[in-house]
Amino acid sequence: MALREIREYGDDVLVRPCKEVKEVTPRIRELIDDMFETMYDANGVGLAAPQVGVLKRIVVIDCSPECDEPHLLINPVILETSGEQTGYEGCLSIPGKSGIVTRPNYVKVRALDIDMKPFELEGTELLARAICHECDHLDGHMYVEKVEGELVNNEDLQQQEEE
Ligand code: NI
User: Fold this and answer.
1) Which of 51, 6, 19, 28 is nearest to 115 (CA)?
2) How far is the CA of 16 from the centre of ligand 1 (A)?
3) Residue 7 falls within a domain, yes or no?
4) What is the tens place of the pLDDT at every residue in 71-122?
5) In a domain, 92, yes or no
6) pTM of the full predicted structure?
7) Which end of the chain is more exposed for a tag (fewer CB within 10 A), N or C?
8) Listed residues: CB within 5 A of ion ligand 1
9) CB atoms < 10 A from the CB of 139, how many?
10) DSSP states along 29-55
């Protein structure tokens, strides 16, 4: 396993649509391992393959302790959404910043697992937000397109919360 370089906002790879995964080759397996390692190293709750420069429809998510386990989504398709949540959201490709985004409060997604077997995953609150955010990356979209108001520095946010 190895850490991969996280591409930052402005990098062309982040605005391009990703291709479906046809087969989990040893290279793809290595990519997935590296994506988890890179996400954990950066203290993120999710990472999409284009963020490490690979235009494939692969997402990793771990929002523990709020959620129970890490998730791998290959070729994810959002089947259903409902409700609404409005709150701060960040992205490893825009380090140190957050912005207010409204997302569904419930999401059901269909994806393939590491063995290319289909499964469905339901999420609410943070997991629902993460699924939407990461699936957007696969179509070349980033949360800043949906932000209400200005981006803020995470340090200022922390200060606000402490006050
Ligand atoms: Ni992101």
Assistant:
1) 28
2) 14
3) no
4) 999 999 999 999 999 999 999 999 999 999 999 999 999 999 999 999 999 9
5) yes
6) 0.95
7) C
8) 91
9) 13
10) HHHHHHHHHHHHHTT-SEEEGGGGT--
